[in-house]
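Mods, move this if it's the wrong board.
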Amino acid sequence: MSRHLTSIEELSSSDLSRIYELACSPFDDETLKGQGVALVYERPSLRTRASSSSAVHELGGFETFFSDEEIGFDSRESAEDVGRTLSQMYAICAMRVRHHEVFERIRKSTNDQMSLVNLLSDVAHPTQAVADVLTIAEKFSGGDVNKLAGLEVAHVGDVTNVTRSLAVALLRLGVNITLGAPERYQLAVGGEEDPSAVVGGGTLRLTDSPEDAVSNADVVYTDAWVSMGLEEGAAQRRRDLAAFRVDETLIKSAKPGVVVLHCLPAHRGDEISNEVLDSEKSLVWRQVFHRRSAMLGVLRWIKEENND
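Not the wrong board. Structure tokens:
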């Protein structure tokens, strides 16, 4: 049976730990020798596509890119038929999709013949979460993700798919998470990739005060207020979230050594100011670097000889 990474929640702690380990350890550049990886993108991306394609090539494989126009889930043809087609030619398919349910539909239609990697869905962004954990560990624990317990991480602004995956990953490691957002943008409890369902580990706290959210933070994380597909409500979102902008004033409420993360692309002047994004406190470019690390770890984990 193929291994899949469609959410952080679905992974066992041992599998997730193994991905972190494989992400930053020496690797064999023939792991994917002669093998192709299908990259299916319903939504555009710079960092996700760059990190995915570079990781595949570094492991000795090749990638084939399929755009929304070529795939057309449920418009050009069904998601099931897309999956059946790709599974005849590829052992791994990494997808950036609008609807998370597509993963389960393809898994069932192909009888788990092809490994699936979630490069972003409306529910989760697990490869981003792996990259973020690696970035935080590099800064605070010499790269050892198992020594992050007790760290304080605050996410301010709109709670997104990125927030959910990162919170699940960090809570499992004993990191304390505070989500600061207005009520209508706060965590919706339930469903897949739900941080509130993590048992043990760190604590999860919700607040509608940006200053309260960052008051004890070692790490402040933010994301775009206007994500893909939400452009029509952009003006209202900017008004509602204005107090949650990560700028120099807000950062003063955090710990003196606080660092700032953003998964990018950044809308400078909206969710984050130029002064903070370009400051020494910003680790955004190490996050970009570790997007590649994350994909190396995921692909190596999928191809390990001890696959079930």
